[in-house]
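note to self — DONT lose this again. spent like an hour looking for the file last time. sequence + predicted structure for the chain T wanted, 329 res
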Amino acid sequence: MARMSAHTNEAHVTARAQRHIQEQVEQTDKTAPKKEMEGAMQAGARRYPEPPLARDHLNKPGLEADLTLAPMCDAPYYKGSDKLKGKAAVITGGDSGIGRAVAILFAREGADVAILYLDEHEDAQATKKRVEAEGRRCLLISGDVANRAFCFEAVEKTVSTFGRLDILVNNAAFQSHISRFEELSVEQFDRTLKTNLYGYFHMAQAVIPYMEQGSAIINTGSVTGMTGNKDLLDYSLTKGGIHAFTRSLAGHLVPYGIRVNAVAPGPVWTPLNPADKPAEDVAHFGEKTPMKRPAQPEEIAPAYVFLASPHCSSYITGEILPVIGGYGG
């Protein structure tokens, strides 16, 4: 009985402690909450646009030059420090958006860059000028990454021009929303998979024979590959596949000293979404994230530098790095 009494007393003490915590919380609830900032979260070196954004709608594949609100890609406060000095990179979908911002920062870190793109020649030329302004060479190659022969020819041209190939950024993508699953056409499904999965596969097979120990492959995944998206079924499928491909290929290439990782962005202000969504939806793009705005390409690009540089991520392979504007919103 004495032992039972001791346990009973302990229980009473715990119950009192719980009530005390409850009283503290209830008192806190009555006090004025800390004033929250209005609008979207701004935590960068400069302010970034927040919804409502420009009500743009582009014809596919989407010219960045046609956007009313130009994506911010030059990262003026980012200072290079030779993280990629003497290296050569190939970036698919490098003419605009994330690809353009990555190309600029790679060049700022000392790399020559080959840009693969579809037919957005005006955007590609603008990216080339920015890369060359950083003091590095830029090679433009137009073609479809869904075409295996093009991928291999582009890689051979890159190696012939730069004399080496150290980094592949698989970034080219096709995205188109659907209203009803039953209306997802075989044509759209095929195009999405051919660009987003086959393209990554072709490019990886093309570059690996030229890569040495310390080289890196970086795939662009997506938050949709982690959480799904009811309006982007085929796109989300491919992004989840890219994440699995990244982890599997990473394990396969460990014996060769080639690292494979992925960046999984949330909403980013690029031509991809204005070339898919109605203008009214585009105006509110990204506002449902905890930060209440989409990222700008220059906010995503440093993640690619980090994963490409042997100075920063030599012990990282097979990882999916989400850059999605927060959790729990």
